[in-house]
Amino acid sequence: MILCCGEALIDMIPTPTSAGADGFVPHSGGAIFNTAIGLGRLGVPTGFLTGLSTDLFGEQLVSDLIASHVNADYAVRSDLPTTLAFVRLTGGQATYTFYDENSAGRSLQPDQLPQISPDVTALYFGGISLISEPCAEFYAALALRDSAQRVIMLDPNIRPGFIRDETRYRARLDRMIAVADILKVSDEDLDWIVPGSGTPEDKAIDMTAKGPRIVIVTRGSAGASAYFADGRVVTVTAQTAVVVDTVGAGDTFNSGVLAHLSMAGLLSKPRVQDIGPADMENALALGARVAAVTVARAGANPPWAQELNI
């Protein structure tokens, strides 16, 4: 099983009303939630670890996880409110305003780390849950505790405007990168993590020296590349799609990458060292396929395996 560890929230999506003005419709979302949903729909055994409210939005999130065959048993339930993210769409690009103070997800503490069963062979982390405290320390502690026995994939999905203490955030992110087997970043993320005038290729290779064996760099419509610590590189092009919006595109891409590696039997600590360029090329290609479907739909709505004939 892949255990996705991070935020679940409600995206309030602007939608025209009968009166003509936009209203906001609640859609289940969050970067890590979206990846978990994508994995479940692709038929990969998937669990989800987060702080979930017992309020009506928390029940919506649980219901949607179960509907996409994601195990929610690891979720830590409380009566604190659910995080809300109000979305603004401009030319298909999404920007967010978060309401996250004292929420169920944000309030997780490191002393709440669960015991995880042996059938969980990989942990996936990322998103705003790595910024917001105290939950960010909860996830960092989990990654450091379990990295010796489980594969770690990390996608920080950096939002500079959301970071209140950059020094503290960078230090925590460095600790997590050091124990990650696979790091996925956008080209913008990479430039933030490694400032300066170096090429994306040089920066990605530099990142492999900090811990990850493989660094994936996505470049939107320009495709994605995987860089190995030994200098090997593979690149795939993005698939053509009529873009409705980009909500959940990167999250769904990650689900495709993880799904391929899982189906190939490579997402375990003994096998992760066997991942080669051909494996990553196929993983990136599946990521591109599922992301192309998602951007052609409104909101984060990953495809099911039968839609892709897999």
UniProtKB/TrEMBL annotation:
It comes from the Bacteria. Its EC number is 2.7.1.4. One of its GO terms (molecular function) is ATP binding. Residues 216-275 form the Cyclic nucleotide-binding domain. Belongs to the carbohydrate kinase PfkB family. The lineage of its organism: Bacteria, Pseudomonadati, Pseudomonadota, Alphaproteobacteria, Rhodobacterales. Keywords: ATP-binding, Kinase, Nucleotide-binding, Transferase. CDD domains: bac_FRK (cd01167). This is Fructokinase. It comes from Roseobacter litoralis (strain ATCC 49566 / DSM 6996 / JCM 21268 / NBRC 15278 / OCh 149). InterPro entries: Carboh/pur_kinase_PfkB_CS (IPR002173), cNMP-bd_dom (IPR000595), PfkB_Carbo_kinase (IPR050306), PfkB_dom (IPR011611), Ribokinase-like (IPR029056).
